Amino acid sequence: MPSLTLDTPELAQQYDQVSDLQYEHGQFLLAGLQLKPGNALLDIGCGTGRLAELAARHHVGQSGRVVGVDPLPLRIELAAARTLPQLSFAVARGEDLSAFADGSFDAVLLNSVYHWLPDKAAVLNEAFRVLRPGGRIAISSASRERPHDIQRILAKVLADAGLGRGQVGGSTPYRVTHAELATQLETAGFLVDEIRLRRFADHFPNVEAVLAFSNASSFGNFLGDYLPDVRARLQAALRGTLEALATPSGVLLHRNLHFALARKPA
Questions:
Q1: Which residues fall within 8 angstroms of residue 58, CB to CB, at 6 or more apart?
Q2: Which helix (H) or strand (E) holds 122?
Q3: Residue 45's CATH number
Q4: Tens digits of per-residue pLDDT, 158-184?
Q5: Which positions ≥6 away from 9 have C-beta within 8 Å?
Q6: What is the structure's pLDDT at 140?
C-alpha cells in the first residue's frame, strides 16, 4: 500500500512544477461536469490545487465554491497559497469526508487519484453522500488492461532484476479496468453516463524529467518499497532503459486513462 509519509517539501514543490500532464487531462473532467456559476465542487486528491483554482476561476465563478482535499499536508500547504474567496483547501482523505454535510456539493472530482485508492468503495460512498441529488462525479484513472508505457518499462526492469511483482513499484498501484470502474460506480448508487479510454502522448525533454515526474507524482512511493541500495540499482537500470529510448527531442511515452462521468439519481 502506498505510504503517505514519504512526501517532502522538495517533492511537493516539484510536483507543483511538473504536474502539467494531470492538469491538462483534468480539464476533460471539468468539461464533462458541466459546472455552472454558483455550483459547489469538491476536488478529492487535489494535490497542490492547480485544477481546483482553474475550476474556481473559470467554472463556478465568484458565486460558487470549490473545496480541495488531499491527505498530504505539504501539498495542501502549497494549495492554500492560491487565495480566492470561493476556493478553500483542507487535509482530508476521500474515505472520510465527515467534515462535509450530506448533499453539500453539486459535483465531485477525482483527477489522477483513483488509481491510488485501495478502498474505492469507501471513497465512492462518501462522494455519493456529499453530492446533492442529480449531482455529478468525474473520475480519471490509469487503465489496468492498457498500462502506461512507464509501467511496462518498469515491469521489465523489475523482472530483469528478479523482482517482478503484480504491483509495479509504487506506480499507480490500484488501476482498474473499464468494467471494474463501471461496477464500482453502480454499486455505490451512481448512474454511469460515460466511460471512455483516452491515450495521451507525453513528451519529456530528457530522462531526468521522466524520473522527476514519476517521483513527484507518486509522493515518494516510486520504487519506494525497496531498500535504498536496491532502489538505487533499479533506478540506474530504469535510467539506462529510458536513455535507450531517448531521441534528440526527448523521451516519448504514452499513458492510457479511463475517464468516467456518472451522476447521483435525482
A1: none
A2: helix 120-130
A3: 3.40.50.150
A4: 888 888 654 555 678 899 999 999 999
A5: 74
A6: 97
The verdict on residue 259 lying in a domain is: yes
DSSP annotation of 4 reads: S
Interatomic CA distance for residues 264 and 99, integer angstroms:
20
Neighbours of 206 (CB within 10 A): 13
Please write the tens of the pLDDT for every residue from 41-100.
999 999 999 999 999 999 999 999 999 999 999 999 999 999 999 999 999 999 999 999
The residue among 22, 24, 28, 7 whose CA lies nearest residue 259 is 28
pLDDT for the residue 168: 56
DSSP state, residue 110: E
Entry field: residues in the chain:
266
Q: Which domain holds residue 59?
A: 9-148+173-203+255-263
| Count of domains for the chain | 1
Amino acid residing at 193: D
Cell numbers representing residue 145 in the block = 488492461
Contacts (Cβ under 8 Å, ≥6 apart) of 34: 136
Q: Residue 221: its pLDDT value, please?
A: 87
| 199 is a domain residue | yes
In contact, 35 and 41? CB cutoff 8 Å: yes
Alpha carbon 106 to its chain's center? 20
User: What distance lies between CA 194 and its chain's CA centroid?
Assistant: 19
| 25 touches 200 (CB < 8 A) | yes
- What is the rounded end-to-end Cα distance, in angstroms, of the chain? 36
Residue 55 inside a domain? The answer is: yes
Q: What's the rounded mean pLDDT across residues 248-264?
A: 96
At residue 130, the pLDDT reads: 98
Q: Is residue 3 part of a domain?
A: no
Three-state DSSP class for residue 159? helix
